[in-house]
Design goal:
This protein is α+β, with helices and mostly antiparallel strands. Helix content is 53%, strand content 18%. It has helices at 2-56, 62-76, 107-113, 150-200, 215-250, 269-274, 292-304, 341-377, 382-414, 426-441, 462-479, 525-530, 537-547; strands at residues 79-84, 89-92, 118-123, 130-138, 141-148, 254-258, 264-267, 308-312, 321-327, 333-339, 422-424, 447-452, 458-460, 485-493, 496-503, 552-556, 562-569.
């Protein structure tokens, strides 16, 4: 690239110099020829005037004028000629007058015979050489001096040769200057080209650093200023793009941009995580989201240029989304998928909860209402009245327990119940559970064994963990009394201590295990109501353990008993005791 620019500039400079030199040479040569001829003509005019004076002093005869003609010709180096009024040649220094024709019609002699100075340039018929002729009138005729033009040509040749030498030297010097100027200009132009290439490649930090004040320097400074503005604008746009991308990636909703021809253009992190194989950028969006409702919404938004919503159920298995597709001004569209799964689960849970609470309250309320109405109608037997009132009291107690459990569950789920967590040894928690059994369930006829293999302290609220143990022990005494024995214990696992309550009763069928910790779920509903259970104990236990950062589960086989297991995190060093 540099060589091409250099040679272009060099040849341009060389052509200009050559044309200028040739023009100057021609002009100087022509001017010199004209000047030389004017000088010769002026000198010839003076010598012709002298010849005319000398001829005028003698009679105009061949014998008188011939010596003068020869003398003047030898002195001036010019050819001298004298004619009379008829044009007859009386004397000539360069030819025999007897052989010469009449000169009356020669232009210079015509002027001289008319009383004026005559000048002419032509080829001599006598000598066959080009001459410059100058004639002046004398009494009775005219005199003429002629100088051959070959002398002018010879002098011109010498001058031209000198001019050629001088022009050649000047041309060489000018070429050297042109080479220097071309190299400098080409180097600066090459910098500008490299700068333009960097800018076009996206390197807006490129600079020319031109300090010259000529046109190229001003162009360089203007380009530098443009590059700075471009860099500032690009950095601002890039910062805005990064901020927008960070915002979109921080959204919980999945976002995907779609080109006018239906291809996935961009997707945020949430969209990437939801898609099992990742978003296939540059590919048709149908390869990423195959839900017909979503694809129809994309087409409607592009066709109508209006935001469109759709319910997406087949994008991710088991999840439900609400898709809002909005057209973009530049073409294409952007789709936002809001996950409705949890909201719909909550709504379903809310409806189920209301239905369950209503169902749980209906039975005791019906009993209370029925027996109260019977008492109001009058019952004669005092024993019957006492039985009815006992039934009313039991149902009222059941409603009280249900209400209390609902309040506890609500506080645990909402986080309003603050845990008073302290480092506590598993042995203390197991001892609390053993004391509860001895004080409240010893009459059940079952035995309680304790196995403590844990060495680490746990971070726990001792009172609420006691509630978990008491719930498990109550369930074991109610539903597994046939086993005759309960086993509670603890052992260390990595980062946690695992606690368990095991009974040896009839066990729980496997289809019930996944739902045991749901609110109001009962394996044996009739038996649960008979025992006074609310159906909320295991749900409360689950939320208590989760609030501690632990896990809870149940394991069981029919006729082999059941084991309820939960973990509590290990106490950190330095935690307040």
């Amino acid at each position: 690239m540099t060589n091409r620019i250099f040679f272009k500039l060099f040849f341009a400079f060389a052509l200009v110099i050559a044309v200028a030199t040739l023009t100057l040479d021609i002009a100087i040569t022509h001017a010199w020829r004209v000047s030389l001829r004017e000088q010769i003509q002026s000198s010839l005019q003076q010598e012709t005037a002298l010849l005319a004076q000398r001829i005028a002093a003698v009679p105009l005869t061949p014998e008188n004028v011939s010596p003068i003609v020869l003398s003047v010709s030898q002195a001036s180096g010019a050819r001298a000629t004298v004619i009379d009024n008829t044009g007859q040649v009386l004397a000539d220094s360069g030819a025999n007058v007897e052989t010469m024709e009449n000169h009356a019609r020669r232009p210079e002699f015509q002027e001289a015979l008319a009383g004026r100075t005559g000048v002419d340039t032509r080829n001599s018929h006598t000598l066959g050489v080009d001459f410059l002729y100058l004639a002046q009138p004398v009494r009775g005729g005219a005199v003429r001096l002629a100088v051959p033009l070959s002398a002018i040509a010879e002098a011109g040749f010498k001058v031209r040769r000198s001019l050629i030498y001088a022009s050649a030297l000047a041309f060489v010097i000018a070429l050297l200057v042109a080479i220097w100027a071309s190299r400098g200009a080409s180097a600066r132009l090459e910098k500008i080209l490299d700068f333009a290439a960097k800018i076009s490649a996206g390197d807006y930090s490129a600079r020319l650093a031109e300090f010259h004040q000529d046109e190229l320097g001003k162009v360089g400074m203007a380009l530098d200023a443009t590059a700075r503005k471009l860099q500032a604008s690009f950095e601002e746009l890039e910062a805005s793009r990064r901020e927008l991308e960070a915002v979109l990636n921080g959204m919980q909703e999945a976002v995907v941009a779609i080109t006018p021809d239906g291809r996935a253009q961009w997707a945020n992190r949430r969209m990437e995580l939801l898609t099992p194989t990742g978003v296939r950028l540059g590919q048709p969006v149908v390869q990423t989201v195959r839900d017909p409702s979503f694809l129809s919404a994309v087409q409607d938004a592009a066709r109508n240029h209006q935001p469109t919503t759709a319910r997406v159920t087949s994008f991710v298995s088991g999840r439900i989304f609400s898709a809002t597709v909005a057209p973009m001004p530049s073409g294409g569209s952007v789709a936002v998928l809001h996950d409705l799964t949890d909201a719909e689960k909550i709504e379903t849970t809310r409806r189920d909860f209301i239905a369950n609470v209503s169902h749980e309250l209906r039975t005791p309320l019906t009993s209370i209402q029925g027996y109260a109405e019977t008492l109001l109608e009058g019952v004669n037997s005092e024993e019957t009245q006492r039985d009815f009132l006992e039934i009313i009291r039991k149902n009222a107690s059941r409603m009280t327990r249900l209400t209390e459990d609902l309040l506890i569950l609500a506080r645990v789920e909402s986080g309003d119940k603050k845990l008073n967590r302290r480092p506590v040894s598993p042995a203390e928690l197991l001892r609390d559970a053993s004391d509860y059994f001895r004080d409240h369930r010893a009459e059940s006829g079952m035995t309680l064994d304790v196995v403590n293999e844990a060495l680490k302290l746990v971070s726990a609220d001792r009172d609420v963990v006691f509630q978990v143990f008491s719930n498990f022990i109550d369930n074991a005494c109610k539903y597994a009394a046939s086993g005759g024995r309960i086993l509670i214990g603890a052992h260390d696992v990595e980062g946690f201590v695992e606690f368990y309550v095991r009974d040896f009763g009839p066990g729980i069928a496997s289809e019930h295990l996944p739902r045991l910790f749901e609110r109001f779920y009962r394996v044996d509903k009739a038996r649960s109501r008979e025992s006074g259970g609310t159906g909320l104990g295991l749900a409360i236990a689950k939320h208590i353990i989760l609030a501690h950062g632990g896990t809870i589960s149940a394991e069981s086989e029919l006729n082999h008993g059941s084991t309820f297991v939960f973990t509590l995190p290990e106490a950190r060093s330095g935690e307040e005791e």
